[in-house]
Amino acid sequence: MAGESQNWVLMVTAQTPTNIAVIKYWGKRDETLILPVNDSISVTLDPSHLCTTTTVAVSPSFQQDRMWLNGKEIALSGGRFQSCLREIRKRACDVEDKKKGIKITKEDWGKLHLHIASYNNFPTAAGLASSAAGFACFAYALGNLMNVKEDESQLSAIARQGSGSACRSLFGGFVKWIMGKEEDGSDSLAVQLADEKHWDDLVIVIAVVSSRQKETSSTSGMRESVETSLLLHHRAKRILQMEEAIKNRDFASFSRLTCTDSNQFHAVCLDTCPPIFYMNDTSHRIISIIEKWNRSEKSPQVAYTFDAGPNAVLIARNRQTAALLIQRLLYYFPPTSGDLDSYIIGDKSIAKDAGINGIQDVEALAPPPEIKDNIPSQKFKGDVSYFICTRPGRGPVLLSDESQALLNGENGLPK
Q1: Would you call the peptide bond into 36 cis, given omega within 30 degrees of 0 as the criterion?
Q2: 50 CB contacts (<8 Å, ≥6 apart)?
Q3: Which key words tag this protein in UniProt (predicted)?
């Protein structure tokens, strides 16, 4: 190991998007390797609105592996972190930084310790796939630091061992996680079906109903479903139909498949013993609003899907529809204060398209036309924490600007 002194620090910073499954993964055939019982398909979300940023650093001065998540130090002793670390260290290659006079051989990596800092710009463990973005970023940043030669699909098989859905965050656009058949999981990896430009009409609005940590984690929920749900074994196979819908940009089919798969996933959760309740009354109200609107238009305008949590992911067919969606959501779920700026985040231009520039515009919204005249519509102020407006986005990238690093380049500690 060559270096001018033992005080050097070598760092890499990466940014990785989160993803939302439109065909859900639920249930594992191998708990340790995280091998699923079915294929799944997701859409990657624009990382400028939802992402994880991770800085990984190596130095001969580090005494042990350490990690900080959102500014708080956490234990790296967990099996999933260790699985990813072990697999990437196994594939590490020689690294040289001529500018800093650093040379690390393949053999050196086993003796060196790492510092890792990770930050999510959205709530952790609230059903917004924070672990997917987190482990994908962990694997991607470490892979780059250690100069591994694996491509994104092969890296995805490592990220999968941290969090199953993480494998799908190694690509942008529309991504398929192939369940695989091999016992060692070597063929259980992600592939890109289409990039983010393929269907860029789509607009995604997330209603954050709750940012609290869920009562039943996805890991324990899946285990209980596999052991007790009879419905799980009758989940319809929609993968090929969804691939066709994405390929042909067929929104009617895409919407039908997305909504049906979400509803069936939550039916499996209810069929689990004891029953798992990820959605709440607000989630059900949002489904009702979208279903009424879609029926009144005689064709789907918006698809909805809910992961393991109450937050609604609503996919509008285009910007014009997204503006009408925002009007409906603000009509039923107005903010508790006049602060619209923190109530609609992400791509705020969607609200402008909807004619919403201030709280007075929300108060002036007329009832949606699908409401029957003789039925007074109830409003649910305070039931939604905030809305995130986003779109399909790109895959992981390295951030070369050192000001974006989460660790100090001098000592490898959090800034």
Answers
A1: no
A2: 17, 18, 121, 122, 128, 133, 206, 346, 388, 390
A3: ATP-binding, Lipid biosynthesis, Lipid metabolism, Lyase, Nucleotide-binding, Steroid biosynthesis, Steroid metabolism, Sterol biosynthesis, Sterol metabolism
Count of CB atoms within 10 A of residue 52's CB? 33
pLDDT band of residue 236 (cuts 50, 70, 90) is: confident
Q: Beta 174-177 vs 102-104: how paired, if at all?
A: unpaired
For 35, half-sphere exposure in the C-beta direction (CA atoms, 13 angstrom radius) is 13
Residue in the block written with tokens 């990690």: 67
Return phi, psi of residue 335, to 5°: -70, 155
pLDDT in tens, 151-178: 999 999 999 999 999 999 999 999 999 9
pLDDT in tens, 248-279: 999 999 999 999 999 999 999 999 999 999 99
Give the residue from 356, 321, 21 showing the smallest Cα distance to 163: 21
- Confidence tier at 216 by pLDDT (50, 70, 90): confident
Q: Measuring CA to CA, which residue among 337, 344, 331 is closest to residue 379? A: 331
**Tokens at residue 284, please?**
């059900």
Number of helical H runs and strand E runs in the chain: 10, 19
- Phi, psi dihedrals of residue 95, rounded to the nearest 5°: -130, 135
What would the DSSP string read from start to end of 100-160?
TTEEE-GGGGGT-EEEEEEEESS-TTSSS-HHHHHHHHHHHHHHHHTT----HHHHHHHHT
Compute the distance between CA of residue 16 and CA of residue 402 in angstroms, rounded to an integer: 17
pTM greater than the 0.90 cutoff = yes
- The predicted-structure confidence for 289-301, as pLDDT tens digits, reads as follows 999 999 999 899 9
DSSP string for residues in 238-268: -HHHHHHHHHTT-HHHHHHHHHHHHHHHHHH
The phi and psi torsions of 28 (rounded to 5 degrees) equal: -115, 145
Checking DSSP bridges between strand 344-346 and strand 302-305, what pairing results, if any?
unpaired
Q: Residue range 83-87: average pLDDT?
A: 93
Contacts of residue 111, defined as CB under 8 A and 6 or more positions apart, other chains included, come to none
291 near 167, Cβ under 8 Å?
no
User: Which residues have C-beta within 8 Å of that of residue 408, sequence separation ≥ 6?
Assistant: 414, 415
Which residue has tokens 């191998």?
30
